[in-house]
Amino acid sequence: MHPPRSTALFTTRALILAVALALAAPSARAEQAVLWLKTEWPPVFMNGGGGFGDHAMGWLIDRLPGYRHDIRNLPLARLLKSMEQADTITCASGLARTPAREAQFLISHDLMRMPGLALVVRAADLNDFNALRNPDGSIAMRRLLGQSELDGAIHESRSYGHALDEVLRSAPSAAPVSRLSKTASMLSMLAAKRVDWLLLYPFEATWQARQSNVDTAVVSLPVAEVPPTIRGGITCNRAAGSAELVAKIDQLIASQPGQPWLAPMMEWLDPEARKRLSALP
């Protein structure tokens, strides 16, 4: 006895639907959403892209098929708050690697390797600072603050790391340093000889010079109280699928020891900073 034709037809359609769903399932699982977060910090990350950190992030994204990538620019406080959510894979670049973050998040191998904080001075006045340099070429901020003939400027609300913050905090009130609320005009002040040195990242100095049309040649000198480089990986929350994504990122980074994604950064460095960075492991 044969089943009714309608039952056979229903069974056939159900089988076709089941096969179609089975074939589509891997694709659906692969299309997992990834939210990439960044905080504007020219020329590293810029609104609308174009920063060398944006380039590095894009380099990774282009080599991570099978995900739905969404990039958002958020203030740092909101970025950190969003990283605490675990319903969607959420990753950020540019966050410092700390023991607390390593315990809370998943962090890839180092993607970024940038020059550390530096003293930015006029190239024509480099000899005024050479006598203050340590054998490794760095200058101790504590010693510099004792040079009454060399005026400097820093950002009053920026943290420069525990060691340097302590030096600046304990500096005598007569120390020749101006504490500014904004950094945008720093290069103009240096070019106009209103100050002799600035505390900036080398790439920030180049960015400011270009934005302000400052053509005065500057050079960056390492600061003894801070690390010579900033290194950081991709920091991801612990959502489902995050560990697999970080493993893929690690494989991509390891496969390119020449770090081609950092090439655009070199365009933002003065020759001294470029030379120092190239000499470091």
In short:
This protein has 281 residues and is of the alpha/beta class. It contains twelve helices and ten strands. The longest helix has 26 residues.
Derived structural class: alpha/beta
Percent strand: 15-25%
Shape: elongated
Q: In CATH terms, what is the architecture of the largest domain? A: 3-Layer(aba) Sandwich
CATH fold-level topology of the largest domain: D-Maltodextrin-Binding Protein, domain 2
Topology pattern, helix = H, strand = E: HEHEHEHEEHHEHEHEHEEHHH
Question: What is the terminal-to-terminal distance?
Answer: 79 Å
The CATH homology group name of the largest domain: Periplasmic binding protein-like II
What's the total number of strands? 10
What structural keywords apply?
281 residues; alpha/beta; D-Maltodextrin-Binding Protein, domain 2; 2 domains; 5-stranded mixed beta sheet
Describe the protein's topology.
Layout: H1 5-30, E1 32-38, H2 52-62, E2 67-73, H3 76-83, E3 89-93, H4 99-104, E4 106-115, E5 118-122, H5 127-130, H6 141-144, E6 152-155, H7 162-169, E7 177-180, H8 186-191, E8 197-200, H9 202-211, E9 218-222, E10 229-236, H10 242-254, H11 263-266, H12 271-279
Parallel strand pairs: 1-2, 1-3, 6-7, 6-8
Antiparallel strand pairs: 3-10, 4-10, 5-8, 5-9
